[in-house]
């Protein structure tokens, strides 16, 4: 190597405190409400918003829609980018992103198994509810890391439910209604 090579910071090393957040800040209660009330579909929006914020903050040439559609394949990368920024910022948070990723893959695998292979119809609702709680736990840990990184540990800047959130909650309530009715009919 030549001694004349100049080292430049990695594209993920961004000065914190800038006006543009690197990741999507959400209040913890709002995150859990949205995940549970939308039957977990809020994760899709959450994933998209994180990749969009990252692209805008660092100028990365990524396509947030593609990373959202293929979410499970890019989730590890997202977790590692968050973890790297936490270490760079010296805002310590013991969140074990690799373990959370294993949990996310496990939950996705079980969900796929339920959809493709199927299970006893009476077991679908308890399994789906357990997976939703597990997914919420994982996402809460990740969101806590993001909020801490962005200097808003409680996510106050995005803690209130908006009209759009209520619309999604209403749509999710319809899904919940049919799932509960279907479970009761099978009982």
TrEMBL record:
The keyword Transmembrane helix is assigned to this record: yes
Bilayer-spanning residue ranges: 31-48, 60-79, 100-119, 125-142, 163-186
Keywords: Membrane, Transmembrane, Transmembrane helix
Protein name: DUF4234 domain-containing protein
Organism of provenance: Pseudomonas agronomica
């Amino acid at each position: 190597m030549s001694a004349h090579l100049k080292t430049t910071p990695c594209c993920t090393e961004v000065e914190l405190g800038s006006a543009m957040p690197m990741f999507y800040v959400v209040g913890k209660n709002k995150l859990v409400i949205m995940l549970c009330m939308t039957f977990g579909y809020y994760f899709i929006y959450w994933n998209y918003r994180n990749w969009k914020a990252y692209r805008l903050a660092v100028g990365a040439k990524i396509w947030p829609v593609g990373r959202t559609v293929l979410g499970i394949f890019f989730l590890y990368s997202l977790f590692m980018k968050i973890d790297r920024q936490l270490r760079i910022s010296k805002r310590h948070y013991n969140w074990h992103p690799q373990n959370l990723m294993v949990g996310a893959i496990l939950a996705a695998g079980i969900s796929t198994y339920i959809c493709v292979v199927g299970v006893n119809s009476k077991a679908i609702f308890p399994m789906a509810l357990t997976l939703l709680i597990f997914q919420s736990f994982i996402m809460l840990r990740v969101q806590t890391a993001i909020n801490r990184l962005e200097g808003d540990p409680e996510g106050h800047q995005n803690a209130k439910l908006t009209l759009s959130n209520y619309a999604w909650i209403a749509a999710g309530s319809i899904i919940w209604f049919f799932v509960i009715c279907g479970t009761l009919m099978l009982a």
